[in-house]
Amino acid sequence: MLKYIPLILILLITKITLSQKKNVLLVGIDGLQLEELAKVKTPNFDKFNIKKGFNGGLLGTDSQQVTSSGPSWVTVLTGVWTDNHKITSNSSNQVSASKSVFNFIKTSNSKLKTASISTWKNINLLLYKDMYLVDFSTQGGLDDNSTKIAVDLIEGKGLDFVFVHLDDVDHAGHAHGFGEKYSKSILKMDENIGYLLKATEHRNKNFNEDWLVILVTDHGRDSKGFGHGNQTISEKSIFVGLNKKGNSFFESVNNDKKINAIQELEKQTIPQTAVVPTILKYLNIPIKKEWKLDAKPLID
User: Fold this and answer.
1) Which of 40, 43, 204, 291 maximizes the CB count within 10 A of its CB?
2) pTM score, two decimals?
3) Contact between residue 243 and residue 212 where contact means Cβ atoms under 8 Å apart
4) What are the chain's domains?
């Protein structure tokens, strides 16, 4: 009789695993340069598998866009470049011509619950056509407040998809460039990442959920860390981090390989447009051709 116990245990474990609810937390970190992140001790960032990526569309094509926050965050949340979403600057007097991940999720399964917590209010304004589909949203405020709201929502409500945008690193860059104050802002960001991770771990442990956590930044910075917007290698360099193993494409990216040209960056790293299909894949939402997403998922 005892020889059948291991099989029973395997079946029970398999059943529990299969019944876990899938949830996604997307943490948008404004203006964080990957190379500067590597200079600071960040125990919570270190829990992620982080790979270099690129923003700004493809150089010399209709998809090329300025490496500014407005077009970049809309790309992150729609999965397409500017030739589709039509956002060309940070001005809130624009509206995305493309649907966002919030729309894809809700129209695919109206029972799924979402939240968009944006320290920089323009993100939600640029996507305002889809905001009526979001179950909870905030615009503006401070990073600590946005983090607390996200933690409370995750711990108390679960939700299926939560986007939280954090802005302090970008502010430090614009004010001081790279250096001590920029590094301190990264340390503070690491604390907030820790709070968010604890919230997802609480749900995993107590509610049989399985949270995919994605980190992404919108743009890199110029050589001194003050500005961005142009098509330079450093300004186009971003990163995507996963708390789970990625697929072969994701894992194949070599962060240590020196990039000598923008074309190399675009061919050898992860496009910013890969975030949306990754979210949809994890939530088991079929990706439709009419969405015209510009990349494939980073997970199998």
Assistant:
1) 291
2) 0.94
3) yes
4) 20-291 (3.40.720.10)
